[in-house]
Amino acid sequence: MGFLFIFVGLTKNAISYQFRFLNRMNFLLKILINIIFLFLANNIIGQNQANVWHFGKHAGVDFNTGESVAGKGPYETLRASAVMCDSLGNLLFSTNAEKIYNRNDLVMQNGDGLEGHNFGSQAALIIQKPGSQNLYYVFTTGFVQGWTFQTGLYYSVVDMGLDGSLGGVTDEKNVLLSEAWDAVDKIVAARHGNGRDVWVVARKFNDDGYAAFLVTGDGVPAGAVFSPSIDRGYKVCQGNMKISPDKKHLVAAYFADGGYFEKPDIEICSFNDVTGDIDLLYTLRFYAGSGLPDEPWGVEFSPDSKYLYLSIFTEGGLNVVDIYQLDMRHYEDSAQFFDTRIKVAEGVPGLSLQLARDGKIYCTGPDYGFYDYLSVINRPWERGTACQYQQDAVYLDYDGQGRQVGEFLPNILVDYLYRFGWQGRCSSQAFTFKPNF
To answer: Cα–Cα distance between 436 and 426 in angstroms, integer?
Structure first.
C-alpha cells in the first residue's frame, strides 16, 4: 500500500508539473503571438509616407534605414517643397509648387504649370485622398514680394495609375478654392478627429484669418471653416506654420523685415481637429535689445507636443539665428508661457525647423540662401539644452554635385510623422495606438 501511495503521489506531481509546463508554454506562446502581431500591425499601419525628403538645390534625405542619409532631389527650390512616398517608404513623387516630379526625377505627365510659387515658405503640400489607393491631392499657393504677386490656394489631382504607374496629373488641375483666394505662403494639414479625413489650413492675408478645408473620400467640398485673426499685410507672410502632433495647437511665425508696424511675431492658437476652428490666443514677440523686434522664422513641436521650438532671426548686423524652447504645458497664460523660454542654441544654423520620422527636428542654414548641412535637435522631448542641438550634423553634398538645403524643408502632413506605441491585450481587446517617440 505504501508503494502504491508513493506511486500515486509521484503521478500527481508529474501531472501538476505537466500542467505548469503547459501553462508556461501557453503564456510564452501568447507573448510570441503578441510580438508577431505587433510587428505586423506596425508594418501595416506604419506611416512611412514622409520617409524621403527633397528640398533645396537638388538635395534630399532618406529616412528608410531609421537614420538620416543624404540623397538627391530633382529640382532647385529655395523654399517650397513637398514629397510623397507609399506606405513602405518608396518614393512616389515630389513638387516645388510649380512642377511635379515622378520617382524617376522627371516632370510628371501633365505635371508642369502649377499655380504656385517656389518662394513660398510652405507653398506646397501633398495628401493622399482618404480611402483611395491611387489618388493624391497636391495643394499649392503663391507668394507676394516686390513684383511677385501670386495669391490663392489651388489643388491638383495626381493619379498614380497613369503613365505606367509613374503617375500623372488629371484634368482636375489648378482648381481654385475661392474661400482662400487671398492665401499665400502657408499651408498645413492634420487628420480630422475621426482618423480618416484631413484638414487643410491656409493663411489668408486680405480677409485676415485661417481657412480650414475638410478633405474627405468625396473630395474637396466647397466651403471652409473660417477663423479670424490679426490684420496683417502680405509683407509678413513668410515663416513656418505648424499644427502640433496632438492636434491641439497651431503656431505661425510672421517675418517682417524689422519694424513695429509690420508685426513680426508669432501667433499662438488653439486648434480643434473635429470642427476645424482655430482660436487666436495671443502673440509673442522677441527682442535682442536693439529696439526693433526680432524676426521669427522657424516653428516646430516636439513629437510629444510638450515643447515648442522657435527660431528667431536676430539681425543687428550679426545675421544669426537663436533657437528657443518653450513649455506647452503653460501655453494658456501668455506671460507664464513666455517665461518658460530657454535658448537652446545661439548664433547657429536653424533658420527653419521640421520634425522627421526619426523623432528629431532638422534645421536649415544660418542665413538667407543655400547651405551645405542640416543641423539637428536630437532629443526635442528633453528640457533645455538636454534636447541636444547638433550643428552641421548631415552633410548634403555627398557626391560633389553642389547639393544644398535652402531656407525651408518639406511641408508634411503631421500624421505622417507618427510612430506607434500600443495599449491593450490583442487576445481580448482592440489596440489603442498613440504617438510615442
So the answer is: 19
- Residue 400 CA, chain-centre distance (Å), reads 29
How far is it, in rounded angstroms, from Cα 38 to Cα 368? 45
Place of cell 521640421: 354
d(C-alpha 63, C-alpha 360), whole Å: 11
Q: What is the pLDDT of residues 20-68, one digit of tens each?
A: 544 555 555 444 444 443 443 333 345 799 999 999 999 999 999 999 9
Cell of 26: 501557453
| Distant-in-sequence, close-in-space partners of 92: CB < 8 Å, separation ≥ 6 | 84, 85, 86, 102, 103, 136, 160, 167
Compute how many other C-beta atoms are within 10 angstroms of the C-beta atom of residue 362: 25
Distance, in Å, from the CA atom of 32 to the CA atom of 311, rounded to the nearest integer, reads 46
Q: What are phi and psi of 329, to 5 degrees?
A: -70, -15
Q: Tens of pLDDT along 197-250?
A: 999 999 999 999 999 999 999 999 889 999 999 988 777 788 999 999 999 999
Residue 206, helix vs strand vs coil: coil
Rounded-to-integer distance, Cα 44 and Cα 40, Å: 6
Q: Which of 122, 99, 146 is nearest to 352 (CA)?
A: 122
For cell 506671460, name the residue: 335
Task: Output the pTM of the full model.
Answer: 0.86
Q: Report the b/e string of 78-94 with b at 16+ CB within 10 A.
A: bbbbbbbbeeebebbbb
Beta bridge partners of 122: 186
Cβ–Cβ < 8 Å for 140, 152: no
Q: Which amino acid is at 162?
A: L
Is 67 exposed, middle or buried, given 0-12, 13-18 or 19+ CB atoms closer than 10 A? exposed
Sign (positive or negative) of CA dihedral 282, 283, 287, 290? negative
Give the CA angle between residues 128, 206, 142 to the nearest 5°. 45
Q: How many residues does the chain have?
A: 437
Rounded Cα–Cα distance for residues 418 and 407 (Å): 24
